[in-house]
Amino acid sequence: MLNKYMSVSASDVAKLRASTGAGMMDCKKALEEAEGDMEKAGELLRKKGIIKAAKRTDKIAAEGTTQVKADGNIAVVLEVNSETDFVAKNEDFKKLVDELADYLLENKPATMEDALSSAIQEKLDNITAKIGEKIALRRFAVVEKKDGDAFGVYSHMGGKISVLIHLIGTTDDEFARWIAMHAAAANPKYVDRSEVPSETIEKEKEIYAEQLKQQGKPEAAIPNILKGKLDKFYSEICLLEQPFIKDEEKTITKILADKGADVKIAKMVRYELGDGIEKKGNDFAAEVESQLS
Asked: Most exposed of 11, 34, 103, 156 (fewest Cβ within 10 Å)?
């Protein structure tokens, strides 16, 4: 018979994990509590809702929320996903997102692996089990600034979009916030041309060149026309080249220059909820059946 000072075998832990889909540490704790009884350990996992949480791991969580938060010289942007928009409005879910934001601000993890400490993963598993939907921390960015810099934070549509702008050369957070609001609305992919991947540029050139040939443009005229098309492309995807939403006669570059010669954008982080997640249609009957199993 086991006691709390004895450990279970690795093979038993692996066997329980294979049969339940629960995490290794959860299986180990359950076996220790059940004094090595595999069936009883499985029942303990079910009672704690851990198996229920594990069954959600293959679900697509594309709803949820984004959040941006600044505290002194540290700021964080994060996205936490759920399976449905309904759950994203749940108070327990909202509380979890706040706790995650505070944890990231305090601990400043460099990677997702660092962020998903045992305590954080346990929080995610517990709320998954409680709510009955997969809850996941999808991504985050922690940004640090100096005393002479500014943070612009803006969240749109209750967390559908969150933006963080880090400005150097000014401490005007309200000005930085306007830049963040612009980024939320205009959806720039990059701060400037230097950030655009070369393969993206080459692909655009290839597409434009083929279009111009199909239009019968003279071969000699194509390079100049191509340059104009690329300039327009940059003005759509690069923040500095976009017309400012409050004054479309000026680009972001111009309003920064008007603010001061040393005012620059050091960092932009823009998270749009579910961006890049491929959603799939659900078979409702199968979903109900899976919940009852």
From this structure: 11
